[in-house]
What we know:
Elements: E1 2-7, E2 12-21, E3 24-34, H1 40-58, E4 62-66, H2 74-93, E5 97-101, H3 103-110, H4 118-128, H5 137-170
Parallel strand pairs: 1-4, 4-5
Antiparallel strand pairs: 1-2, 2-3
Helix pairs in contact: 1-2, 3-5, 4-5
Amino acid sequence: MRVIGIDPGLRNLGWGVIDVSGPRLRHVANGVCHSSGDDLAERLLSLHRQLTEVLVQHAPDCAAVEQTFVNKDAVATLKLGQARAIALLVPAQAGLRLGEYAPNAVKKTVVGVGKAAKEQVQHMVRMHLPGTQIAGPDAADALAVAICHAHHMQSADRWQAAVGAALKAAG
């Protein structure tokens, strides 16, 4: 299964693609979409086009997007929400199943601590995906989101298998 993780941002939207085979994770690619343009609509269109190209190029089977937190600046939060909409829209247009994860859930899954620093996240991403050249902090966060999604998918698969076995044994 190929997973794309997306870290939404209006200026820098990070993305990371991994292949998942059982417990094994393999890095495929990562990068950052940089918005361009003078007004908000142009910047969002730029992100949409770039992320669409990433999906076409890497053909993921599913996607995971980091949820945003609300900060004190309402205008900045609203703009980040609009960038997050692009991060949700592009995979939905491609027909992909989407997972959404809070930042602390991503950190807890990848690092083991929900309040881990960015440096700790980058270090653990490198541990999970040895030899990976990370395109920057936003790409590292996106790879962490993809790793988080892979772990949650595996847990859900094990749960479904256990429920199926229990139902079969009871029936």
